[in-house]
């Protein structure tokens, strides 16, 4: 039987001391089961040229509201991420719309982009547990909502913040019990207006009679005034022109990422169908790609990818969950972005749930299977060995960490055992780009017992369960934040933490690495 491990998404902030690693604390107090860093996004919220980090804490208690959720924000600088000016946001902050309530899970997902084209990144925060009063007067629990906080020269502010759900204005569909609107987010310019747009996963959306948890994605477009309902879209597997058919428990929209996979300047959207059955193979998983156009996302040319797709290595197998993680970046072929698809429950040979990652390369005509790659811990030249339950591919982040000008790939192995039999301590593989895509040359493995890395590998830490990248400062290369969402902070169990490794000309290095958590 395949093991199921709850994996959270993470992102954190840090200060760099170039000559040593260090631990830093952020606003609020580390508490049991907060799971700091369960979601993450990187964006320049104050326009100073350095990426800032937003770390979701969806199980944060706000006053008496259990699991209301919060987001910590830390700002980048020439010296890297700095605690100065760090913020804590929740639904009781300032004039933020709505109120912090039990089980809202504010911060379960986050995405950063410039929705109003004012030169400052803005932050979208998912609260999939939000109860929303529907237009018919029904209080729909776990309907879900998304909050938008706008950037400024002073950083994120509550001025003009927005609160979106499926009964907002003309937003498609309607608020319903258990939909979980906001369970996943992705932001990019899908329509070429130069304003970023927002894709919102509604992973438990019911479509028609009996199609419970079939899943859907709402798309809200950006404008000079920010996110708007004008021209909004509602995508699912029964949308005209979209391959396949909506089915019970497919979970379309479980994961989202955006990248420019084709020849034009518009971003495209990749959508995971987590539980999709392929040819009768239950839970094999699939990924839809919906391409951008001058009028926004369009079904024209849309694609459906899975492990039985022509030219894709391996084959669809029961409960592989192809698409359990996604990333997009230019990994070395051409100038288009490429799509990275995690399959953490992939069996490698006879090794159950060892995990694997597919890379599908982008060309002028879009994503093509020719030349696609399959990576795992038994791939030639890759360090370490595939072991049962490692979950290689449980998280992904792609950015230029060094060595070349192309993006490199960080792969979370959240349930990797550390040396000495430390179960599920977690690790991160880094595979660097070459002229023809990713190459094993110079690949590295990091964990909390790596030389110079802050803290120590411990039982059930799940280091690398969340990954995100951004140029936080110090050098011209991107840096990597690795979530340790069940890290014990002092005596506080599962409070959560994030390790930050900084990029350099020769790739990620331990020099100046950081260890972030909420103040115990």
TrEMBL record:
SUPFAM superfamilies tied to this protein: Integrin alpha N-terminal domain
Signal peptide range: 1-25
Keyword field contains Signal: yes
A GO term, aspect molecular function: hydrolase activity
Keywords carried by this UniProt record: Glycoprotein, Hydrolase, Repeat, Signal
Any one GO BP annotation for this protein: cell adhesion
Pfam families listed in its UniProt record: FG-GAP
Hydrolase as UniProt keyword: yes
Record-level GO cellular component terms: integrin complex
PROSITE patterns: FG_GAP
PANTHER family recorded: GLYCOSYLPHOSPHATIDYLINOSITOL PHOSPHOLIPASE D (PTHR23221), PHOSPHATIDYLINOSITOL-GLYCAN-SPECIFIC PHOSPHOLIPASE D (PTHR23221:SF7)
Protein name as catalogued: FG-GAP repeat protein
Source organism phylogeny: Bacteria, Bacillati, Actinomycetota, Actinomycetes, Micromonosporales
């Amino acid at each position: 039987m395949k093991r199921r491990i709850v994996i959270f998404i993470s992102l954190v902030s840090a200060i760099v001391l170039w000559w040593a690693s260090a631990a830093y604390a952020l606003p609020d107090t580390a508490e049991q089961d907060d799971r700091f860093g369960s979601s993450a996004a990187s964006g320049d919220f104050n326009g100073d040229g350095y990426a800032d980090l937003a770390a979701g804490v969806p199980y944060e208690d706000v006053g008496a509201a259990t699991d209301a959720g919060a987001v910590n924000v830390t700002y980048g600088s020439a010296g890297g991420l700095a605690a100065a000016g760090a913020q804590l946001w929740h639904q009781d902050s300032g004039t933020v719309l709505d109120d912090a309530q039990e089980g809202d899970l504010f911060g379960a997902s986050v995405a950063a982009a410039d929705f109003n084209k004012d030169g400052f990144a803005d932050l979208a925060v998912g609260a999939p547990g939000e109860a929303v009063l529907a237009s018919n007067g029904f209080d729909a629990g776990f309907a879900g909502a998304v909050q938008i906080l706008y950037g400024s020269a002073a950083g994120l502010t509550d001025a003009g913040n927005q609160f979106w759900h499926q009964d907002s204005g003309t937003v498609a569909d309607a608020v319903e019990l258990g939909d979980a609107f906001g369970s996943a987010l992705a932001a990019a310019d899908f329509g070429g207006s130069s304003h970023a747009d927002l894709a919102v996963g509604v992973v438990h959306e019911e479509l028609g009679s009996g199609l419970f948890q079939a899943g859907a994605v709402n798309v809200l477009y950006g404008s000079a005034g920010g996110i708007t309902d004008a021209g909004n879209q509602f995508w699912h597997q029964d949308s005209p022109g979209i391959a396949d058919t909506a089915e019970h428990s497919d979970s379309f929209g479980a994961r989202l990422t955006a990248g420019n996979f084709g020849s034009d300047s518009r971003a495209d959207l990749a959508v995971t169908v987590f539980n999709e059955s392929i040819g009768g193979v239950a839970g094999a998983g699939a990924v839809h790609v919906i391409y951008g156009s001058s009028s926004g996302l369009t079904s024209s040319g849309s694609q459906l990818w899975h492990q039985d797709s022509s030219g894709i290595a391996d084959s669809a197998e029961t409960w592989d969950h192809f698409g359990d993680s996604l990333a997009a970046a230019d990994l070395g072929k051409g100038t288009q972005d490429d799509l990275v698809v995690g399959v953490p429950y992939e069996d490698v040979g006879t090794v159950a749930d060892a995990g694997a990652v597919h890379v599908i390369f982008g060309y002028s005509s879009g994503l093509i299977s020719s030349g696609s790659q399959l990576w795992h811990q038994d791939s030639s030249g890759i360090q370490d060995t595939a072991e049962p339950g490692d979950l290689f591919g449980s998280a992904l982040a792609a950015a230029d960490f060094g060595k070349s000008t192309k993006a490199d790939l960080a792969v979370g192995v959240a349930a990797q055992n550390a040396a000495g039999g430390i179960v599920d301590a977690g690790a991160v593989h880094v595979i660097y780009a070459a002229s023809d895509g990713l190459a094993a040359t110079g690949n590295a493995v990091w964990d909390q017992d790596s030389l110079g890395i802050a803290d120590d590998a411990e039982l059930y830490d799940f280091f690398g369960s969340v990954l995100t990248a951004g140029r936080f400062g110090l050098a011209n290369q991107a840096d990597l934040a690795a979530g340790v969402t069940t890290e014990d902070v002092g005596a506080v169990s599962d409070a959560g933490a994030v390790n930050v490794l900084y990029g350099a000309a020769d790739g990620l290095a331990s020099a100046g690495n950081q260890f972030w958590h909420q103040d115990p």
